[in-house]
Design a protein that fits this description.
α5 crosses α14, α9 packs antiparallel against α13 and α11 packs across α13. The protein has two domains: 196 residues, Growth Hormone, Chain: A (Up-down Bundle), CATH 1.20.1250; 201 residues, MFS general substrate transporter like domains (Growth Hormone, Chain: A, Up-down Bundle). It is mainly alpha-helical and 435 residues long. It is globular.
Length: 435
Amino acid sequence: MSAAPLGWLGIVRLGLVQAAIGSIVMLATSLINRVMVVEYALPAALPAGLVAWHYTVQLTRPVWGHGSDRGQRRTPWIVLGMATLALGVVGAVGALDLLAARSSWGLPLAVLAFAMIGAGVGAAGTSLLALLAMRVAPARRAAAASITWIMMISGIVVTAIVAGSLIDPYSLPRLAKVVGGVAAVAFVIAMLGVWGIEGRAPFVPVAEQRGPTQSFGSALRAMMADDDARRFTMFIFLSMTAYSMQELILEPFAGLLFGFTPGQSTHLGGILHGGVLAGMIVVGVGGSVLGKRTVESMRRWIVGGCAGSSLALVGLVLAARSGPGWPLTANIAALGLANGVFAVAAIGAMMGLAGADGGNREGMRMGVWGAAQAIAFALGGLIGAIGLDLGRKLTGSTPLTFMIVFTVQALLFLVAASLALHRAARRAPAQPSLA
């Protein structure tokens, strides 16, 4: 007998795990990143490379997902992942001490620490999404995706405020205390969120177990042989590449072409993320109220969000051509809103598609899609930054370069939307209802 679907309290409890993951990752990718570059004058390429390395390690997500599928339990993998993640960020502080002292052990320890961070995010995050996919009723998946991602962003924001208030005046021992304390609190919160929520796994004879018995390679080949799963993997990769291309160039865009000060450009980044949150809320509320056929409903939100993102990027192309006088703040807010709509709708669609084959392969599917997302995040920011540098060198024109980069980003969103539309058109006659 399968467990009852999660209620709202259970969804919020799992959202606490997502918030804990976000808070610990923020320490590594933001706080420790800044300390390396500013306080210790280390090359900016070092923390950038370590962050890219932690994304690369997340290519192991399918392995973690397959392991939880075979064991038919998600909680142990979440606990293991959170412990690894917390220890990894503490290790990163230890590596910072050695790097500052120019010790030969500093870089190897930093690489190991960020590998643990990537592995921890992969194990905990993949298993958490698989558990949500298994236990959330179809009618609540849109809201569940919104709740968990909003809580993740909230965890990042709260951690940034708390850590920022405690870190001054800066010293390495103080940094160690702050990072260790935040990591410990986040781990405890995650344990409270996941404790007992999955329930005890009933005894099932080996011959009757529904978990996959084939090897990892066989399970991966079986998944990628499915047209829907393969197309959705490509959609995740393209859309998330487009989503992350603006990460490193949006604030320079405002400064170079509109004369924004550092404070003003940072505020503009806040406008973007505020729009993302608003988009997530729109999908959470609208998807629950209007979405009677969950996967199809999420697909419509995805297409709308991708199309809206593309349209907002066309606005930025025009902004690069027009310069000051363009309503840049409103344009960025619209981009954030569309980004939030498509991103959280994609998570909701993942939940619906993860168990579509009925073979207890939620972990494998979430793992593959998480790996595609990690690669996209690592490549997207890099493509945007390199495109900006290369374009300015080749064309000699900063406005033209931004126009080219934003056009490429807009086209990627349209291609991603076309993938979602193609699947909808192919499946509609055969499956009119996904209730």
